[in-house]
Amino acid sequence: MLLINIRQLLQIRESKLEKALAGKNLAELPILESAWLKIKKDRIHSFGLMADLKTVDDEEIIDVKNRIVMPSFVDSHTHLVFAGSREEEFVMRLHGKSYEEIAEAGGGILNSAKKLQSKTEEELFETAKKRLHEVISMGTGAIEIKSGYGLTVEAEIKMLRVIQKLKAYSPIPIKASFLGAHFYPKEYKQNHEGYISLIIDEMLPIISKENLADYIDAFCEKVAFSAEETDRIIKAGIKHGLKAKIHTNQFNCMGGIEVSVANNAISVDHLEVINQDEIDCLKNSNTIATLLPSAPFFLNDPYQPAREIIDAGIPVALASDYNPGSTPSGRMSFVLSLACIKLKMTPEEAINAATINGAFALEMQDEMGSITVGKKANLIISKEIDSYGFIPYSFGSDQIEEIIINGKRM
Ligand code: NIG
Ligand code: FE
Predict the structure, then answer these.
(1) Ligand 1 within 6 A of 320 CB?
(2) In a 3-state reduction of DSSP, which class is residue 350?
(3) How many CB atoms lie within 10 A of CB 210?
(4) Looking at ligand 1, which atom is closest to the CA of residue 86?
(5) DSSP structure string for 236-299
């Protein structure tokens, strides 16, 4: 397949990158104006300038008529498998209750867990499948999905099995994270040891034996797990071959970043609040800062101080956090708009953070996230727009004309 007359081909990288983009490199988005791109099977075969194109007769030629082509988004943080919506809590917050108050009172994650526990694997698979197709149509070409709404041995394993089935079914690559440490179930509120022991001694061995997860996650916050508890859980996950991707600093600075970095986490996710010591700690690490601006948008919280994080030279990824409690949306183009409008990132930084750096945050950087020969042909073809800045500018809409997944038009 040969795409011709591409107005702007975004995110072209001649070779695979060694490291996630940071500092000034994050601000540079390499593009080709007036380009072509050739796909063979499911891979990017070659690309170049229209002026240099020699056509071959037997190719399927698609004239994209001056539209923009870019790699699909890599959404490196979602909770796509869940059992129902939580608009009643949304209304409670409109009446003045905070996310943390609702969680403390047994709503929030426990509410989602109760709903999920009563669903079958098949029911969860069917609803997750719909959401997966929805996010693919909105430009996501690779995704991470977490457990964490089970909170019993049985229900956490059920969730991870659903994700495993999605992996087999999905046209886009999926990575799975085990988030048993999302919240203490009611019966363990006064018995943290009891629940931690369920995670470490019962859930993790099954997960490891059945190869049900790629990453270990925990929610390190006052309402959930302490830094010390998070540390123990990450270490146990690492023993079972999982790397860490950690929820931290959504509401509290309480040591989550330090613990994550000490355990060589791939990413620390959220970071609505972060102090100078934590910025310094991240600066001297290989850990990516994954910012999820849709969560503070929906919860009306302060946004991530992206400028300080980026200007310190820390690599930043952007992800949706799609979940029923804090972000009932997997629309990555809206994440880009928020990143520009609220986090003061430039369109170049936002696109880099949502593509190649997202790929690094899922260790998929050799397969996804850029227009590079040999990488998977998961692409977005835009509507008729003049330049890529229009993508974050036109907030709320996707500007997507067509999606290509595995080299095929969807
Ligand atoms: O990433 N913060 C923790 N987990 C999710 C929200 C969970 C929920 O409220 O259901 C998040 O925002
Ligand atoms: Fe999350």
Answers:
(1) no
(2) helix
(3) 12
(4) 10
(5) HHHHTTPEEEEEE-SS--SSHHHHHHHTT-SEEEE-SS--HHHHHHHHTSS-EEEE-THHHHHH
Per-residue model confidence as pLDDT tens digits over 17-50? 999 999 999 999 999 999 999 999 999 999 999 9
Q: Give the environment of ion ligand 2: residues with CB less than 5 A.
A: 321
List of domains in the chain? 2-71+370-409 (2.30.40.10), 74-360 (3.20.20.140)
Helices (H), 10-63: 23-26
Spacing, Cα 32 to ligand 2 middle (Å)? 35
Is pLDDT above 90 for 104? no
pLDDT digits (tens, 9 = 90+) for 305-359: 999 999 999 999 999 999 999 999 999 999 999 999 999 999 999 999 999 999 9
Per-residue pLDDT averaged across 167-174, rounded? Answer: 98
Beta strands 43-49 and 31-40, pairing class: antiparallel
CA of 250, closest atom in ligand 1: 2
User: Is 325 near ligand 1, meaning CB less than 6 Å away?
Assistant: yes
Cβ neighbours of 201 (radius 10 Å):
11
CA geometry: angle at 396 spanning 149 and 134, to 5°? 45
Does residue 256 have its Cβ closer than 6 Å to ligand 1? no
Nearest to 318 by CA among 359, 374, 379, 364: 359
